[in-house]
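Lab intake sheet, docking and co-folding queue.

SAMPLE TYPE: protein with bound small molecule
LIGAND NAME: pyridoxal-5'-phosphate
LIGAND FORMAT: SMILES
REQUESTED OUTPUT: full 3D complex as structure tokens
PRIORITY: normal
SUBMITTED BY: R.K., bench team

The fields below were copied directly from the construct record.
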Amino acid sequence: MVTESKCLNIKFENFINTEPGEDLFGKTERVNQVLTSGILTGNEGLGMQLMHKVQPESVIKEKNGEKHNVIMLGSNSYLNLSTNPKVMKGAREALEKFGYGMGAVSNYAGITDLHRELEQRIADFYNAEDCIVFPSGYGTNIGVISALCHEEDIIINDSANHASIFDGCRLSGAQIKIYPHSNINYLEKILSKIPETTKGRLIITDGVFSMDGDMAKLDKIFELAQKYRCKIMVDDAHGVGIVGPTGRGTSEHYGLLGKIDLNVGMLSKGPGGLGGYCAASKNIVQYLRLYARTYFFSTALPASVAGGLNEGFKLMEKDKAGRRELLDKTEYLKTKLENNGFDIGHSESAIVPVMIYNEEILFKLYQELRSQGVYVNIVTYPAVRRKECRLRLCAMKELSYKQIDKSVDIITKKGKEYGIIK
Ligand SMILES: Cc1ncc(COP(=O)(O)O)c(C=O)c1O
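RESULT FIELD (auto-filled):
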């Protein structure tokens, strides 16, 4: 991924389109020239290889083959369920019983009793009638939205919704409206202007926003949805298992469990596996099984993943997956960063943004933190606006307080060097 370098004015967007007279693949050559020229120290350094399962102190291999230790603040496996012994045992047993791939889509021969058990568990988790599990999280949003909405309908989105939601909206052909992040007055302005003749109306919001870690104002959105006869879809990818009195997510936080029309979430973050789901009424789920093309035309989740996820949900159902420990550690991390002068936004989850506001500094900081032993993610365009670029730290339940101290010390030292804090 190439991104902006101020002096050269090289931007990610410059390489999306084919230039007049250019070969279709010319843009790939242009990107390669920039990446191999050594003139950027940016996103081209993204990615590394883990040398073992993800854990608070991980060994990573860099692109030059060098291996070193990092404190891991870049994984969405917040509850460490991806490596939980019970979860891994469930996955291992399913692997032995069913093999490693399903070989068919869900509506044909791709489903095991473990898949169905998982759907039922998720439905119960949300107090919903039924649930459909998709083999990909990204594909869940694409499939659900494009199955239910079409040209005659309108979809109203928070501007900070995940890319997969916007892609699903575009594919649906519905009219798309966007309100500034969590701006409820603006949302109402949009809703009040929808013509009576418009057919279906759907408000979509992330539950926990993936780049800011804050929660949607779902209570207000719910009121407006009732007032203006809209349905609601919540993508709680980063809220499931983490927020709400028993970890059932953003809807539970607001006392709205069982009242949201489309409870979408991802199985790849807190639950530690892969895939996505939509818990909803029986009729909606049945409809999605037939009309969501990313379900109908895509091979089912491996049974080993379903087996692991069932064990993870058994823990989350009883609120025994370590949510409180995670939130205590997240609070500790946030407080330390804030006390040291960093702007960390308004996170209410295990996602901790550290605002940098300068892309050139962001890239340098990211590389240096990594070489000093702290692995964090960076976020800039196209995920957020460049001027809102940031480090994105993810807390993990198994991080020790000592590891948090050490990583904050390193981040603070570097933050001072680059003038981010005093
Ligand atoms: C809010 C949100 N929705 C959907 C997705 C896509 O999920 P997956 O990575 O499992 O495909 C993500 C992933 O980052 C996300 O943050």
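REVIEWER NOTE: The chain has 14 helices and 13 strands.
SIGN-OFF: pending second check by T.M.
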